[in-house]
Give the backbone structure.
Amino acid sequence: MTTRPFRFAAVRSPRGDGAQWRATGQQVEQLGYSTLLMPDGVHWLSPIPSLAVAAGATTTLRVGTFVLAASLRTPRSAAWDAHTMTVVTDGRFDFGIGVGRPSMKEESAVLGMPYGTGGERLEQVAQAIRHVRELDGDARTPVMMAISGAPKARALAAAEADSIQLAVNPVLPEAELAEVVAGIREAAGDRADQIEIGANIFAVNSELPPEMENFLGTTTKALIEHNSVSYLRGDVSEMADELERRREATGLSYFTVHCYEDFAPVLEKLAGR
C-alpha cells in the first residue's frame, strides 16, 4: 500500500454577509488548507453559488461540496452544477456527493423532490457521476463520495470516486476502521492507490458543541474513551504524531476538519508529510 501525503480540508458554511464569507475563504487558504468544503441542506445557503464566491476570492484554494445530497436535485442538475464549477474555477472544484442524511427526507419535501429508497438514491449518485464525466469532456471533475456501511455504496465509491469520506460511527474502533479501508482498497483493485480515503476531525482539545453531539449521536467523553479518529488531544507535536500513526494504522490520509482554526498549528506541522 502506498502511503499518501496528508491533505486537509476545512468544513464551513457562510455566516454573515458576502464579505465575511470571502474573508473565510482567504483565511482557510492562508492557513494552508487544500480545500474549503461546504455542507448541503435547505437550512444553509446553497453550496454551489457560495463556493463560487469563495473560489473567486482565493487563488489556489480548492472548493467542494460536503456533500450534495442526491435527493435534493436531479442527477443531471447536480452534474451540470459540478461541471460548471470545474470550468469557472479553472479546475479547483471537488464534486462531493452522497445519498444524504436521514433528515434529507424532510428537506427533499421542502424542495418538492422525491426522497426515494436507499437504492434509488444511490442510483442517483451513480447517474450524477456518469453525467459529470460526459459533460467534462477532456476535463475531469474530481468526485468525492461520502459512504457508511452499505456494501453497494462502498462498491460504487471504489469503482468511481477519486476520494472517499467515511461517514461511519465516530467511535468505531481503529481496527474496524482499518478493515473498512482495506475492504474499499480491495474492491478498487488496480485503482486502489489512486483513491484518497479520509475521515472527519470534529474537535481538538475541546468539548464538542451540544448541537454537534446531537448530530453525531455521541459525546466528547465517548470519543475520548474510544480514541476516536475524529478527536485529537495533546500538544501540536503529539497530535501530529498521532495522525501519522493513524495514517499508518488505517490508511486514512484526507481529513475534513470542522475546527479549522484550532487545528491550524497541527496542519502547519504536517505540511509536506
